[in-house]
Design brief:
The complex is a heterodimer of chains A (421) and B (564). Chain A is built from eight helices and 14 strands. Chain A has 421 residues and is of the alpha+beta class. Classes of the chains: A alpha+beta (421), B alpha+beta (564).
Chain lengths: 421, 564
């Protein structure tokens, strides 16, 4: 309220202020392109604007996540192709190693090649992309496996590795578990922790060790114990010691029974727990009889059971020297080659799964792009200035301002006093 | 001729004061003197005093509109400032910070063990806290400014009252006939009407008695009764919340409710109603604090129920946000000073999904808030007895749209069971489509068809065992996502600001109309004054000619007599 201004002029000024305020708003909307810059501009539109913006941000992030996942899936696909190539090489090596004409030295050489491929396969399992282990489960910054030929599978894992459960969500909210862990792919296990069919690492290790065991020894026909079916060996806690001479080393490996006796498998396990450190493996021949094999020459003597049924029942004190035997390894190699074939199937199935994942991601990316376009169009319709209408309004308001000021200025300011003499 | 000279003097004064605020047309009353030649009374004209044309009805109409304009102008200004603190583009402020947080959670869910992603979560959480802090600080600054304006407005009112009292004194001295003093007086009254609602009683001596809202005296005669501003008493639910403002009369009585219009009313409404709806006061938590607490509790609940590693042993997650409960949530919201990125719990132990908790956090933007008061409420209503013994009471206040609905549970001498408490609540709430029940832990929870918020007043007296025992009168919003809840706050403020601006425009026009009407009834019309001046000029000239003629006649008579 202006003091000293007549009510007539005060009304004119108030109307002028309103017109100028409208003009200012028109200009602000045109220059910014935004119709709703504060809540009072259109309170009913606030919820829609914020919902649209939040949804745009969410879908944009989903797009980013999908892009990251696509990169990871692509890296995984490439890694799986490498794994498949390596397995093909192993099949070829295995075929050579299983030949009846192959020499022990060739088998040893092939075994060394298998070890090298094993290291390469571990490298495949440890593939990284964008700073993360592609097959690393939830601990994607922890290397899944390390090469260790002393391990029964030729690899070690620093931490217990579980199946991947990480979910990937698309813009529509659908979920997918986009990745598999190195354990799931390369180290398939049974519920009891033993290697399952298709275990890639186990298959490679078995091939390598089968090829690397040209030296073998058995107690011959004098040993009639079938370890595949025996179940009451060394009952009453009896023991039986086998003494190995490996070069200058003398190594004793003792099998200990229990009250009711142990199985052949248990006996082999006890022997291998000692012998694996020396590159010697206890196994069974085609009759189930105890036999030993290793990369280097050795001799073994049987101390006989202290009492009861022994793991082998040749005459106690029998001492045999290993011989370079290609034959013994042929069965093992053939078996290992079959494991490799199973691993090839495993990798093939995993490749198919990742193919599905890549397709899912691609479709999700396309959907996200479409959603973003729709959302941005919707946001624009609610939030943005209608340029044509606002420009027209600006012209109209400007005209009204000029006309009102012109009309007010042209009003006569004379009164009767102006005409008095 | 003297009378005519006076009349022209009055006209000259009118013309000179045509633009003087508060001035109304003065008129010299004329009357004929006695003409009785037989008694040697030869008539003439006399002045019976100056009358002013002030129309009290027109004045009161102007004051009434001015009061309404004062209220609307102040509300428009205050609400405009307040709404500017709530961004509605979604690209800055609280909505942008929340969106960034949810995006950070989403990115983290794809690579839960990435230290970069973890740090981005912490950084985004810090931005959320800062956004709430900044908004709360801005609102509190507005409150402080509003408080200062209250002080200055009350000072202006007291200053004007003092001036009016002095002018009353001058009018008493002048016998109530000083047009200039009267103009100043009514100008001050008009100015005062813009500041507060006034009621004016005119006295026979021309002075005025002014009261605020017709009840609280401001001026009586030459005595002024100054008013003052003070802090209102602290509330019972949130005793540490900033108090509101109250107006005290000269005798120290709380007369806040008397102030119904004017700038003062606009300031009081903003201080005692609008701002507390956002940042709380002694009886409510405030929507900004409810939102902040809701976001923090949702995030913390998910993280503390999640696992950092599955172990064994499993390592549970830790809370991300901290805050001081009650009306300080938004101001004190912060990221825990001890949490590190590696302590963010991504694993959902209930499903075994390695990034399940991270994924759930990323969905919070569209997740409605919990139906209960969270883990802090440990009362198991399935087994509880002895609740609200004494008897004590506990009131839950629901905000359902614009409706505020209290639901009170009353105990007994020995206390009541949880079932009885639920029954009492539902007897009130059923009419509003809200149901009180229990969650899987037996804790109190509410559900409804539409969104609402609920605040727990706590047991009264506080020593009694309550139906729920979360700390400090907690409030939760139910049925709204954080985005929607923020939208409701911003839209509500926008509505108020828009309505206030429209009201200001309307009241401006109405005031102009009232002023025009007053001007027509009692303002100075230059044309009228010019016509009267012409009339009195002619009459003066005629009277002067009469005197000259009579003088010539007498002179001739004297000359003739001398010659004779």
């Amino acid at each position: 309220m202006l003091s000293g201004i007549s009510s007539y002029n005060g009304g004119f000024l108030a109307d002028l202020n309103q017109t100028e305020a409208r003009l200012a708003q028109d200009q602000q909307q045109l220059s910014s392109g935004i119709r709703v810059s504060q809540a009072s501009d259109d309170p009913s539109a606030v919820s829609s604007i914020l919902d649209y913006q939040e949804e745009i941000d969410r879908v944009s992030q989903a797009q980013t996540n999908l892009s990251t996942a696509a990169g990871t899936a692509s890296a995984a696909d490439t890694a799986l192709q490498s794994a498949s190539t390596l397995l093909d090489q192993l099949v070829s090596i295995g075929s050579q190693g299983a030949s009846t004409t192959v020499s022990a030295s060739t088998q040893t050489s092939l075994s060394n090649q298998v070890q090298q491929i094993a290291q390469l396969m571990v490298g495949v399992a440890n593939t990284t992309a964008q700073g993360q282990y592609v097959f690393g489960a939830s601990g994607a910054t922890t290397q899944p496996y390390s090469f260790n030929w002393s391990d029964p599978k030729g690899v070690t894992s620093p931490t217990p590795v579980t199946a991947s459960t990480n979910v990937l969500r698309d813009a529509a909210g659908n979920q997918l578990v986009p990745s598999m862990t190195a354990q799931q792919i390369f180290d398939a296990q049974n519920p009891d922790g033993t290697s399952a069919t298709g275990n890639v690492f186990q298959a490679i290790y078995d091939l390598g060790t089968a090829l690397g065991r040209p030296n073998s020894a058995s107690f011959g026909a004098g040993n009639t114990v079938n370890l595949n079916s025996a179940s009451n060996l060394l009952a009453g806690g009896a023991t039986q010691t086998y003494t190995f001479q490996i070069g200058a080393q003398t190594v004793a490996s003792t099998v200990t029974g229990n009250t009711g006796g142990i199985s052949g498998a248990e006996a082999l396990s006890q022997l291998n727990s000692t012998l694996s450190a020396y590159g010697i493996t206890a196994s069974t021949d085609s009759n189930g009889a105890l036999q030993f094999s290793g990369a280097s020459a050795f001799s073994v003597s049987d101390g006989g059971p202290s009492t009861g049924n022994g793991v082998s029942n040749e005459t106690a004190g029998t001492n045999v020297a290993s011989t370079a035997s290609v034959t013994v390894t042929q069965t093992a190699v053939a078996n290992a080659v079959q494991e490799i074939q199973n691993a090839v199937t495993q990798i093939g199935q995993v490749t198919t799964t990742y193919g599905y994942t890549e397709n899912w991601i691609q479709n999700a990316q396309n959907d996200a792009s479409d959603r973003l376009v729709t959302l941005k169009t919707g946001l624009s319709a609610v939030q943005d200035t209608d340029v044509a209408a606002t420009a027209t309004q600006l012209t109209s308001d400007n005209t009204a301002l000029e006309v009102s000021m012109s009309a007010h200025a042209s009003l006569t300011n004379k009164s009767l006093f102006s005409y008095l003499g | 001729m003297d009378v005519f000279e006076k009349a022209m003097g009055v006209i000259q004064n009118n013309v000179a004061n045509a633009s003087t605020p508060g001035y109304v047309t003065q008129t010299l009353d004329l009357s004929a003197t006695a003409f009785q030649p037989g008694s040697n009374l030869y008539g003439g004209v006399q002045s019976d005093g100056v009358q002013d044309s002030r129309n009290l009805s027109a004045e009161r109409a102007v004051w009434s509109q001015n009061e309404a304009l004062g209220t609307a102008t102040q509300q428009s200004s205050s609400l405009s400032s307040l709404q500017s603190l709530f961004n509605v583009s979604g690209t800055s402020g609280i909505p942008a910070a929340l969106s960034s947080l949810y995006s950070a959670f989403s990115a983290w869910s794809t690579t839960p063990s990435s230290s970069t992603a973890q740090q981005q979560v912490l950084s985004a959480a810090s931005q959320v806290a800062q956004a709430f802090n900044t908004t709360a600080t801005g609102v509190n600054q507005l409150a402080a400014q509003n408080g200062s304006q209250l002080q200055s407005t009350v000072s202006q009112i007291n200053q004007l009252s003092s001036q009016i009292a002095q002018l009353n004194g001058q009018l008493q001295t002048s016998g109530g006939s000083d047009a200039g003093v009267s103009a100043s007086l009514y100008n001050d009254l008009e100015t005062l009407s813009n500041l507060t609602s006034i009621s004016v009683q005119t006295q026979s001596d021309g002075t005025v008695a002014v009261s605020m809202g017709g009840q609280t005296p401001l001026v009586t005669g030459t005595t002024q009764f100054p008013i003052s501003v003070s802090l209102a008493p602290a509330g019972s639910t949130y005793p540490t919340a900033p108090p509101g403002a109250q107006i005290l009369s000269f005798s120290g009585q709380d007369v806040t409710n008397v102030v119904s219009q004017g700038t003062l009313a606009g300031l009081l409404q903003f201080q005692n109603t609008t701002l507390p709806s956002v940042v709380g006061n002694g009886t409510q938590q405030g929507s900004l604090n409810i939102l902040g607490q809701s976001v923090a509790d949702q995030v913390n609940t998910l993280l503390t129920n999640g696992e950092i590693s599955a172990g064994p042993p499993a390592v549970p997650g830790v809370a991300l946000f901290t805050y001081t409960a009650g009306t300080s949530v938004a101001q004190t919201l912060a990221v825990s000073s001890t949490i590190t990125g590696s302590q963010l719990a991504a694993i959902d132990p209930t499903t075994g999904v390695a990034n399940g908790t991270a994924d759930a956090l990323s969905q919070l933007a569209t997740t409605t808030a919990a139906a209960g008061f969270g883990a802090s409420n440990t009362v198991d209503l399935n087994t509880a007895t002895g609740l609200l013994a004494g008897p004590a009471t506990q009131t839950y206040t629901f905000q359902i749209g614009t409706q505020t609905v209290p639901a009170t549970v009353t105990g007994s001498a020995t206390g009541i069971s949880g079932t009885a408490a639920l029954s009492q609540l539902n007897s009130t709430l059923s009419a509003y489509g809200i149901t009180a029940g229990t969650d899987s832990n037996g804790a109190l929870q509410f559900s409804g068809a539409t969104a609402f918020t609920v605040s727990d007043g706590g047991p009264v007296p506080p020593s009694a065992t309550g139906v729920s025992n979360e700390a400090g009168g907690s409030s939760v919003n139910i049925g709204l996502s954080s985005t929607d809840f923020y939208s409701s706050i911003a839209a509500d403020l926008g509505n108020q600001a828009s309505n206030a601006a429209t009201e200001e425009t309307t009241q401006t026009q109405l005031l102009t109309q009232a002023q025009n009407m007053r001007s027509q009834l009692s303002g100075v019309s230059l044309n009228d004054q010019a016509a009267q001046l012409l009339q009195f000029q002619q009459a003066y000239e005629a009277a002067a000619q009469m005197v000259s003629t009579i003088n010539q006649t007498l002179s001739q008579f004297i000359t003739d007599m001398e010659q004779a």
